[in-house]
Amino acid sequence: MNAIDPHKLKISQLRILVAVADYRNFSEAALHLNISQSAISHAIATLETELGVILFYRGRNGANPTSVGEQLIAPAREILQLLQKMIVEANRAKGLEGGIVRLVSFRSAATHILPVLIAQFCRRFPLIKVNVIEVDEQNEIESILRSSKADIGLVHLPCSQEFESWEIYRDEYVVLLPRSLKLNQTQLTWKQLAKYPLILSAIESCSLRIRKYLQHSEESMNIAYEMKRDSTIISMAIEGLGAAILPRLAAKPVPEQLGVYSLPVPLERIIKAAVLKDALHTPAVFAFLDTLKDYSAIAKSRFPNINN
């Protein structure tokens, strides 16, 4: 029998082992760890191969530890607890045992991007408090950052030169129309779009962007309504009052009565994180900036805005 090489064992495998033991189900463990069920299955199978033992009985009743599995789960928990203690001590040394991070964002990013980031951040740094200010216009975001009432802002327009910014997400503009129209294609032509009264956002930055975009059409466009609230725009589209044009994030969750269609020519808004260039940030703020940059790398590699 070959000796087990402990250097092949991974912390991620131990986390998965403990999660499956806690939930007695591969699917539930996957949801808890925010990874795919196939990743759970692969990790457990690999761990069983490396250890040379069966860790779980699989069946209709879920995944139940074998006797040797029970014996190995306990030390796995201890290893993870020791690892967490190391992280706590390291964070304390870096000044991350407390503090606050203040964020300011426009509404749809605050609704669909920040909750995921904040939850991830708070799991890593449970003693750091996170505050969020939600506004409509970008000039409000920049003003709040200048006044030091917030540390980090999420914006979707180019910033003033006094700010440093970087892309974290690309958000596609889409058209919402009633499904009862039974349109067969996923992308509208200019001629098709011109058939409908248009329902746009009344927020200045959004309205200007769409109006400038529509100037590229040779068709005459009828801007019938401009409403401040995304929910109002969506309700009007449901009632058949026109074609709503919104960023995809602002449209979520899309009601089942509406179909989602691409514009004749793709249009995106680039969502960025912004900070004052010369601001003196605390360790807590730098830690949240690292979380944002990690999210940016994942978003760029997966392009979730295109497929969702």
From TrEMBL:
Organism of this sequence: Hyella patelloides LEGE 07179
Coiled coil: none
Boundaries of every HTH lysR-type domain copy: 9-66
InterPro entries: HTH-type_LysR_regulators, LysR_HTH_N, LysR_subst-bd, WH-like_DNA-bd_sf, WH_DNA-bd_sf
Family: Belongs to the LysR transcriptional regulatory family.
GO cellular component: cytosol
Protein name as catalogued: Putative HTH-type transcriptional regulator LrrA
Keyword set, alphabetical order: DNA-binding, Transcription, Transcription regulation
GO molecular function terms noted in the UniProt entry: DNA binding; DNA-binding transcription factor activity
